[in-house]
Amino acid sequence: MAYHFSNILGHFIIDNSFKEIRKAQKESKDVKIEEVPQQKLSIVLELFKDKKYFTEFYEKNIDISKQALKKSVTEDQLIIQAISNVQELDKICNILTKRLREWYSWYNPELCEEVKDNEKFAELVLTEKRGKESMGADLDKPHLDEMNLLAKEIGEMFQLRKTHEAYLQKVLLDYCPNLVELAGVTISAKLIELGKSLKHLALLPASTIQLLGAEKALFRHIKTGARSPKYGVIFAHPLIQNSKRSDRGKASRMLADKLSLCARLDFFKGEFKAKEFRKELEEKLR
Amino acid sequence: MAYHFSNILGHFIIDNSFKEIRKAQKESKDVKIEEVPQQKLSIVLELFKDKKYFTEFYEKNIDISKQALKKSVTEDQLIIQAISNVQELDKICNILTKRLREWYSWYNPELCEEVKDNEKFAELVLTEKRGKESMGADLDKPHLDEMNLLAKEIGEMFQLRKTHEAYLQKVLLDYCPNLVELAGVTISAKLIELGKSLKHLALLPASTIQLLGAEKALFRHIKTGARSPKYGVIFAHPLIQNSKRSDRGKASRMLADKLSLCARLDFFKGEFKAKEFRKELEEKLR
Fold it and tell me: What is the ipTM of this complex?
């Protein structure tokens, strides 16, 4: 943010200075503006000898920069934050459930073995009573309370993750309907995160979109000559998951192609064509 | 758990077999038990020729092992789980607050700069309204809702951490009053975690207790001849924190000495002497 700020500030100081110069020019007619930037700058600096311009310049610039900063926040940034948080919540849910499994196994090891799904496990810790034949220790209530609190917290984390996803879906459907229709919520959000913004994503070639998220493998390929990656985050897409292993590279290339078109349609506010694209891909990949 | 189980199971199979042999001995008087273990085992194996013993052995052993396992859970394990979870929660709170700061700074960058304390920040996100002159973007309610949910979750994490600490204090005051009195809740729990159990901690020499938690530095010292570490987790103790830098090594040695005594007093259910120890240390280190 700070970097962003100073950047825009610098830009506006130069920009505003010219406005001031033009104003001064109109008034006094004795300040000449040459087309050479070096000279322009020296004229501006000349004006700063007079202190009366300086404070005004400074305050106005700060104001205008603040306004510009206000307007510079787009949905891209919010989408990026939300999808990053979803990814972090995934990690955190895993860490905490692992701890709960270890902790709870002193009381009811059978449940920990039985239930493999993390979300369900946290729920069952709260609701289910253990069998009488359990080989876990008979712990007192204070000990169990701590585990239950942790289980409850894990449940809420999973809930938060779902809320974030619903929010993302809502925002993305507005922002890039084509991309979401073809790629789904998670993949579209990840693509925007990796492409930094929808604008930048729309400007990327399809082959880059195909490999977004596979940077590590790509650089290993360039550096050591290992096999080149075939897909990045789009690997999770059902069209690729459902094709044969030998067809996946092809499927990924075709999908990236259409995704790139979708990103462009969305950024330049084009028509809604994703459904046709999807049908086309499905027919070709059958 | 599984390893623990098979360990105890093996132990009890041997143990029970001897009981069976003795029973058989009493009944038939023709099985002799020599004092050589090798022979003992062969006698046991002899009995397994008869299938009737086998199923009974097996079932009884499973039963007895389950019982033993039930009893084998001590407070040590629960303390270790709780303090590990506290440490994980610390990390998680940091990760999530970092994310919230980045996310919220699009709306209210001033608050993110102002409030350095993580817990307070999460609270203020929920309660405080931003100033009119903020240079953050004017976001709609749906966007802000997600941030608020995250802030709420962070607040609950901090709360859970506090509950865990209160629980630890209660358990530790019962389990090792001397250690807690001298070292405080967090350090005692960490010492038990690093020593694996209070029993093992009581058996460790004071010099090892002094360096628990500084294993990395210790092995670097042994391997490369770098300077040896002076303290492990006990570094956070106020007696060490408050001494001069040059006295810290000495303070740490004296403190570890007393902590080792405390662990022994606690494990062997001795008197409560920690207050005297504390006074003694404070006088010496003044």
Answer: 0.78
